């Protein structure tokens, strides 16, 4: 990661980033379980704040305490809320780590809230390996059902929030959740909520096959090595059954894929980067979305690796904020002229 090395990145994040392989080795037990107690030393949590921090105030809403399903709401304080989009966000971390109150994700969501601007709902779904598929996907979908309920929505989001301006966003494992939750949302009859668009930021997909990008970056990047990704898939898939990595939840665009060509899958912005071992899986996802007739915008970040956006000091972080903002406003304005233009620019740059 030359670019990262040249930029003055906050020491703690850089440490965390480069320590991921080591940390994983320390917290994963041989029987496949996690020693989460050790994690407490590197895991920084931030409480919600009713006093605005960087122009955004936050509060937490519990949906179901028995399964610890809750979300953090980020509300920008400089704008009236009634015409703001609502971004329902699923964090990354291999389905096994991180949370909305983890400082990395608290600050990423805060930036989305301020810069788009938007109301952001960041979901605390259950983690693997203690919980397995489909619990994570169910938790995320249940948040949409909760927000669709008029009374629950008005109690948890600011008054006058327009929930028909909803977008789903997620990075890495959250990008996987975003895809499957969007698919379920298309087949569900919501009363008020509408998913207008999907933001899949370096989504985590895979398969039995080893792709070129996986082989090329093996042992060269701190995140998303084959050893790690195999561990994550084993951790989330139910044991004792014949789940391999060609399950449609993982190999999303393979021959066993669900046909999404007739369900009205929402407009999608797909963020990929050159030095991500998951790049080839994501490009296949892109081709498959296109083939299925989805309006999809591929945004490529050269020179970036997996999870580059945890470093707000990077120029590319600003670029990502800007791209997300552009996409959301373009979709909401139903600006077809601009859509065609954006498609064209992306096609010229990306392919
Ligand atoms: C609304 O909230 C209540 C209390 O948390 C919950 O029991 C109910 O299931 C929610 N409704 C929906 C549709 O999620
Ligand atoms: C909510 O947003 C939708 C979609 O942008 C818009 O058509 C509708 O008029 C808005 N409703 C209100 C009450 O502003
Ligand atoms: C996984 O997906 C790729 C295409 O993306 C395909 O070549 C491969 O055969 C798939 N495997 C299965 C069994 O679906």
Automatic annotation (TrEMBL):
Domain of life: Eukaryota
Name of the protein in its database record: Uncharacterized protein
Organism: Cichorium intybus (Chicory)
């Amino acid at each position: 990661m030359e670019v990262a090395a040249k930029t003055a990145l906050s020491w703690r994040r850089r440490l965390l980033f480069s320590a991921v392989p080591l940390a994983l080795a320390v917290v994963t037990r041989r029987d496949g379980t996690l020693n989460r107690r050790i994690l407490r030393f590197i895991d920084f949590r931030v409480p919600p704040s009713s006093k605005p921090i960087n122009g955004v105030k936050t509060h937490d809403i519990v949906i179901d305490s028995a399964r610890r399903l809750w979300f953090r709401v980020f509300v920008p304080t400089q704008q009236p809320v009634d015409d703001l989009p609502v971004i329902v966000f699923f964090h990354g971390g291999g389905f096994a780590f991180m949370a909305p109150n983890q400082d990395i994700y608290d600050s990423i969501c805060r930036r989305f809230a301020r810069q788009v601007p938007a109301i952001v709902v960041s979901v605390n779904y259950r983690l693997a390996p203690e919980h397995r598929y489909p619990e994570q996907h169910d938790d995320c979908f249940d948040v949409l059902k909760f927000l669709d309920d008029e009374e629950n929505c008005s109690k948890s989001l600011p008054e006058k929030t327009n929930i028909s301006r909803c977008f789903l966003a997620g990075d890495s494992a959250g990008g996987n959740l975003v895809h499957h939750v969007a698919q379920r949302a298309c087949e569900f009859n919501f009363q008020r909520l509408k998913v207008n668009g999907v933001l899949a930021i370096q989504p985590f997909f895979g398969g039995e096959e080893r792709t070129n990008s996986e082989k090329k970056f093996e042992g060269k990047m701190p995140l998303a090595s084959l050893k790690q990704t195999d561990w994550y898939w084993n951790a989330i898939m139910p044991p004792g059954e014949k789940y391999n990595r060609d399950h449609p939840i993982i190999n999303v665009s393979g021959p066993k894929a669900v046909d999404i060509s007739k369900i009205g899958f929402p407009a999608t912005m797909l963020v990929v980067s050159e030095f991500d071992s998951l790049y080839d899986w994501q490009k296949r996802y892109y081709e498959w979305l296109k083939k299925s007739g989805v309006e999809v915008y591929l945004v490529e970040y050269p020179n970036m690796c997996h999870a580059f956006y945890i470093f707000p000091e990077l120029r590319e972080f600003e670029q990502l904020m800007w791209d997300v903002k552009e996409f959301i406003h373009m979709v909401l304005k139903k600006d077809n002229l601009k859509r065609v233009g954006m498609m064209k620019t992306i096609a010229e740059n990306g392919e």
